[in-house]
C-alpha cells in the first residue's frame, strides 16, 4: 500500500522537482558552489590519502617542497584570474544576447551547463590549490610534501584549461543567431513531445478526424455545464506566470472533496491575486486543506517556461524573428531561419493529438475539466506576429507562406486545415495592402494557391482549385471567404 501511494504521488513530485530544478539550473550559483565545495573536500581527502600511501609513490613522481609550493601557488593565482575572465566573458555574452536576440532568450543561455561547469571547475581547482598549499609544511623537523595531491593539482590545472577552451567554443557558438534558433526549436520540440502524445495508429485523415471530436467538443460540453450550476470559485493567492500545474494534486483534491473542478488558468497565463483559478461543483465542499492544496497546485513564477507551455518556446522564436525584422536590425535572413524552425515544429505538432481536457476517476465520475492547448494556439502565436512584422518584406512573407504550405500537407484534422487557410488568406491580404509591387503580390498569390491545393478541404469556398492569377479576382475571393 505504501509503495502504491508513492507511485501515485510521483507525478506530483516530478512536477515540483522539474520546476525547482529549472530555477536552480538557470542560475550561476548552484553548480559553481557545488564544485567549489567539492574542490575543498578533495584537497582534504587527497592530502590524507597521500599521507597514508606516501611510501608507494614512485620516485619519479615525487617533488620538492619548494617546487610543490610554487606549483600550488601559481595554479591558485592563475585559476582565480581565469575565473574572472570567465565571469567577464559570460557577462558580455549575456549582454549581447539580451540586446540582439531578446531578454527572454537569456533563459536558454543561463541553463547551459558548460558555462556553469567551467566556472565551477575554475573555482574548485583554485580552492583545491589554496587549501592544499597549507599542507606543504614542516612538522617535527620533517618536511611534509603531499606528492600525489600536488600531482593531482597539476592534472586539475590541465583539465581546467581544456574546459576553458571548450567554454570559448560554446560561447561563440551560442552567440550565433542560427544556433540560438536551433536550441530554442529543440526546446519547442521537447515540449511538443511531452505535452502532445502521439495517437497510436493515427496515420490517416479519418483516424485523426475522429480524434478531433473528443479533443474539440468533449471538454466544451463539460465546460458549459459549470455555467449552468452553482459553483464555488477558487481564487489565486500568488501573482505571476503559471509555469506548471500539478494535475495530480488537483485530481486528489477533487476526489477527496467529491467535486468536479473546472481549471480556468493554464500554463503561460499571468495570474493576479484573487484571479479565478478553478470552479468547484457542487459548491461548498472544497474547503480547508483541500482548498489550499488546489491553490498550491498552480506553480507560479516570474517567467514563462516551456515545462507545460508550448507557446513559450514559440514566442521565443518569434521574438528573434521580430527583432531581426525591426528597422534597427533589418536582418531578414535570421527571420527566415526562425520561420523554418517554427514550420518544422508546427508540422510535427499537426500530426499529434491534443489532450482531451477531461479526467475521470475509476468510477467514471468527472473530476477535472480544462481547456487544452491545441494546434490552433501554437499556429496563431507563431503566424500572427510574423504576418504583422513581415509586411512589406517579400522574402520573409514568401517563406511564411511556404511554411504554411508545408504545415498544410501534415494537417489531418479539418479544424486545423481551416486555421491554416485563414492564416494564408490573411497573409495574402496583408501583402496586397503592404505596397509591394504587382509582380511580388502575384508571387505570393501563387504560393497561396499551392497552400489551397495542399489543404483540399471539402468546402465550396475552399475546393482545392488554384485561384485565378488576376490579382483583383484573388483579392475579391479572399474578402468573400467566411472567417472560420
How are the secondary structure elements laid out?
Elements: H1 2-25, H2 30-52, H3 65-100, H4 106-110, H5 113-133, E1 137-139, E2 142-144, H6 147-174, H7 177-195, H8 205-228, E3 232-235, E4 240-245, H9 247-257, E5 260-263, E6 270-271, E7 276-281, H10 289-296, E8 298-301, H11 310-325, H12 332-350, E9 358-360, E10 366-370, H13 375-389, H14 394-410, H15 414-433, H16 438-455, H17 471-479
Parallel strand pairs: 5-10
Antiparallel strand pairs: 1-2, 3-7, 4-6, 4-8, 5-7, 9-10
Helix pairs in contact: 2-5, 2-6, 3-5, 3-6, 5-6, 7-11, 7-12, 9-10, 11-12, 11-13, 12-13, 12-14, 13-15, 14-15, 14-16, 15-16
Structural summary, described in words:
The chain has 484 residues and is an alpha+beta fold. The chain contains 17 helices and ten strands. The radius of gyration is 30 Å and the shape is flat. The two termini are 52 Å apart.
Amino acid at each position: 500500500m505504501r509503495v502504491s501511494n508513492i507511485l501515485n504521488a510521483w507525478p506530483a513530485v516530478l512536477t515540483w522537482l522539474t520546476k525547482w530544478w529549472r530555477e536552480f539550473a538557470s542560475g550561476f550559483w548552484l553548480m559553481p558552489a557545488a564544485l567549489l565545495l567539492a574542490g575543498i573536500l578533495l584537497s582534504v581527502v587527497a592530502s590524507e590519502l597521500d599521507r597514508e600511501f606516501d611510501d608507494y609513490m614512485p620516485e619519479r613522481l615525487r617533488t620538492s617542497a619548494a617546487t610543490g609550493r610554487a606549483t600550488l601557488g601559481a595554479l591558485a593565482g592563475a585559476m582565480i584570474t581565469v575565473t574572472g575572465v570567465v565571469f567577464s566573458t559570460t557577462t558580455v555574452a549575456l549582454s549581447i544576447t539580451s540586446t540582439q536576440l531578446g531578454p527572454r532568450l537569456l533563459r536558454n543561455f543561463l541553463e547551459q551547463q558548460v558555462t556553469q561547469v567551467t566556472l565551477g571547475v575554475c573555482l574548485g581547482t583554485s580552492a583545491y590549490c589554496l587549501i592544499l598549499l597549507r599542507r606543504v609544511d614542516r612538522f617535527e623537523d620533517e618536511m611534509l610534501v603531499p606528492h600525489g595531491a600536488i600531482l593531482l593539482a597539476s592534472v586539475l590545472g590541465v583539465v581546467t584549461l581544456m574546459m576553458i577552451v571548450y567554454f570559448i567554443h560554446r560561447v561563440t557558438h551560442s552567440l550565433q543567431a542560427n544556433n540560438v534558433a536551433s536550441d530554442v526549436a529543440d526546446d519547442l520540440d521537447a515540449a511538443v513531445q511531452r505535452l502532445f502524445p502521439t495517437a497510436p495508429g493515427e496515420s490517416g485523415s479519418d483516424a485523426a478526424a475522429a480524434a478531433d471530436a473528443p479533443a474539440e467538443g468533449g471538454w466544451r460540453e463539460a465546460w458549459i455545464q459549470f455555467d449552468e450550476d452553482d459553483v464555488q470559485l477558487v481564487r489565486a493567492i500568488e501573482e505571476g506566470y503559471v509555469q506548471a500545474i500539478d494535475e495530480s494534486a488537483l485530481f486528489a483534491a477533487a476526489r477527496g472533496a467529491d467535486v468536479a473542478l473546472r481549471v480556468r488558468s493554464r500554463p503561460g497565463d499571468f495570474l493576479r491575486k484573487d484571479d479565478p483559478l478553478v470552479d468547484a461543483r457542487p459548491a461548498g465542499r472544497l474547503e480547508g486543506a483541500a482548498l489550499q492544496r488546489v491553490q498550491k497546485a498552480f506553480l507560479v513564477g516570474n517567467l514563462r517556461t516551456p515545462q507545460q507551455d508550448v507557446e513559450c518556446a514559440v514566442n521565443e522564436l518569434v521574438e528573434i524573428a521580430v527583432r531581426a525584422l525591426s528597422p534597427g536590425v533589418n536582418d531578414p535572413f535570421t527571420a527566415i531561419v526562425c520561420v523554418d524552425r517554427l514550420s518544422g515544429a508546427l508540422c510535427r505538432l499537426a500530426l499529434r493529438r491534443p489532450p482531451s481536457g477531461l479526467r475521470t476517476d475509476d468510477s467514471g465520475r468527472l473530476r477535472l475539466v480544462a481547456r487544452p492547448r491545441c494546434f490552433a494556439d501554437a499556429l496563431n502565436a507563431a503566424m500572427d506576429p510574423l504576418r504583422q512584422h513581415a509586411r512589406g518584406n517579400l522574402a520573409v512573407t514568401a517563406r511564411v507562406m511556404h511554411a504554411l504550405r508545408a504545415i498544410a500537407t501534415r494537417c489531418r484534422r479539418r479544424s486545423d486545415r481551416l486555421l491554416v487557410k485563414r492564416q494564408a488568406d490573411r497573409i495574402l491580404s496583408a501583402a496586397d495592402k503592404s505596397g509591394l509591387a504587382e509582380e511580388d503580390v502575384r508571387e505570393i498569390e501563387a504560393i497561396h494557391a499551392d497552400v489551397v491545393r495542399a489543404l483540399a478541404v471539402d468546402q465550396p469556398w475552399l475546393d482545392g482549385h488554384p485561384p485565378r492569377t488576376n490579382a483583383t479576382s484573388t483579392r475579391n475571393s479572399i474578402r468573400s471567404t467566411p472567417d472560420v
